[in-house]
């Protein structure tokens, strides 16, 4: 009876030991499984980290685009630089589209990395363009003031008539500061011509004289094409103004009062050009003596020339 | 009866001889060209009789170039159609004809006599066309040329010939010519680059009609201030509508670079604005200068006297005596209110061409009245040459 009790005790002990071992193995298995799981497996946390990365790229991208929008001001007010800016903006637009495509796929890790690089490039280009924009705005402002001054000085605000700085060997008026300094009139000249039925030849003899032919040079240093008009005044040896036709002559205001002009010469001159402007004056008869040719613009005497007729 | 007839003939003879002496005193033709023929054109107009003497060379016939040697006129007020004005006009036209024939030795086939379009229009409106026939008959008796008749000229012919006679060939197809008369305004331009097609421009307003319409509004307040106020209303009302419409319909704004005005008010205004150019027959004009003159006439009329204007001329090379005479003539023909009316009408028309973006060149013609006569003479000579 005593042996029966011992065998039962041993059996229960072994069962408990087995259960303990089984529990221990299960725990060990689970622990090991957690600790040694492969790194390539995608978990919830990992996915959450990627979404955060995409949001920060989006933010950079939006900032770059906002900076890009501020360049419209320069684009709308720039004339000569418009083509250059348009080209650059098309580059940015292309870059922006590329980035938008890359950001549209959140699972493409390589694409996101490229997007990050491209956003960096975009940001640096936008910064460069912003600097240019500021420079253009500054230049626009300067040119605006210049045009206002010219409009006030000229007969009307629509004509770009530049103030004139003359280059002549005779200084007639004290040189004033030249606000534009862009339209230069020089080299006034005049000769007498005679017509021998076939050709016009030069002459200084009053009996042979048919007409006066003169010219002057205009150089346009403006940033755009310009046009203007000058009054040609030819004073005859008797002191009277030569008038070839009533239709061509008239009066104009100067600081010394109203004067009669012999003819009004209108001209245009392209940006950067040097142009020779001719004029012709004829009369019924020509006195012998010294003829003074005076050139006026905006009522100011620019230059003069004298021609002796024998 | 016989005594009466003799008396009339004698008085006509005396009047003619007086007229001849009077005109002869101011005539001394100095030919500009050698070997030219001189022609005379006499026009019986609304206000009086005008005569132009022109010389034409062989090439002038071909090219339409001629030189005005002399022009003269006498006031007779023919369109009042009274016995007095009839007699005065008959004396005037006979006197000028005699001057041309006797003093300048111009053969009768080179003397052309016509009624102006204004006379024709008024005579038709007032059923007085028989007065024109009577004048023509009386004239042929007075000069003893039974074959001669005086015919009226049409408005469009007068405007077209004026253009040909006044505007130089170089500006012919870019110039819109407007003649502001006392009772109406007429003119036009050549839109097609040839002289056959002429676009006529007409207004029923002239300097006198503006003045008359203003006078009717004055009531008891006949001050200059009220005259100016009422005149502005006349110009802003019916006149404005008609002018704006006529200019738009003419299409002249798009087709013309130059707008030239003739007529008495153009002559007066040109002399007052630019006395330095008193000797010039054509004067380029700025719209703003006319505006300034308009204000000056209204606010400071005394500054337009000959002495006041001469004081402002600094150029000693100018003939101040001649300028003074011209200013005196202007002030004799136009008083302050007549100037205000005329300049008001001028500005109203000029304003139609004073664009913001496109500026036209304005000209005032001083000898406009002789223009069409010269061209008429020239045209008649050309036609006669062709028919021969």
**Order of helices and strands of chain A, N to C?**
HHHHHEEEEEEEEEEE
Helical fraction of chain A equals: 40-55%
- Strand share of the residues of chain A? 25-35%
Q: What integer value in Å does the Rg of chain B equal?
A: 21 Å
Please outline the major beta sheet of chain A.
5 strands, mixed
Q: How far apart, in Å, are the first and last alpha carbons of chain B? A: 46 Å
CATH class type of the largest domain in chain A: Mainly Beta
Number of domains of chain A: 3
Strand content of chain B: 15-25%
Main beta sheet of chain B: strand number and arrangement?
6 strands, mixed
Mean pLDDT of chain B: 84
Number of helices of chain B: 16
Question: What is the CATH C level class of the largest domain in chain B, in words?
Answer: Alpha Beta
Rg of chain A (CA only): 45 Å
- Give the total of beta strands of chain B: 11
Q: Which homologous superfamily in CATH is the superfamily of the largest domain in chain B?
A: Exopolyphosphatase. Domain 2
Shape of chain B: globular
* Topology, number of strands of chain A: 11
Describe this structure in words.
The complex is a heterodimer of chains A (310) and B (388). Chain A is α+β, with helices and mostly antiparallel strands and 310 residues long. Chain A has three domains: 1-37; 44-152; 164-309, Immunoglobulins (Immunoglobulin-like, Sandwich). Chain A has five helices and eleven strands. In chain A, strand 2 (183-195) and strand 3 (200-202) form a beta hairpin. The longest helix of chain A has 45 residues, at 109-153. Chain B folds into two domains: 2-153, Nucleotidyltransferase, domain 5 (2-Layer Sandwich); 168-369, 2-Layer Sandwich (Nucleotidyltransferase, domain 5). Chain B is built from 16 helices and eleven strands. In chain B, the strands form two sheets. In chain B, strands 8-7-6-9-11-10 form a six-stranded mixed beta sheet, sandwiched between helices. A five-stranded mixed beta sheet of chain B has the order 3-2-1-4-5, sandwiched between helices. In chain B, a hairpin with a 4-residue loop joins strand 6 (175-180) and strand 7. The radius of gyration of chain B is 21 Å and the shape is globular. At the A-B interface, strand 7 of A face strand 10 of B.
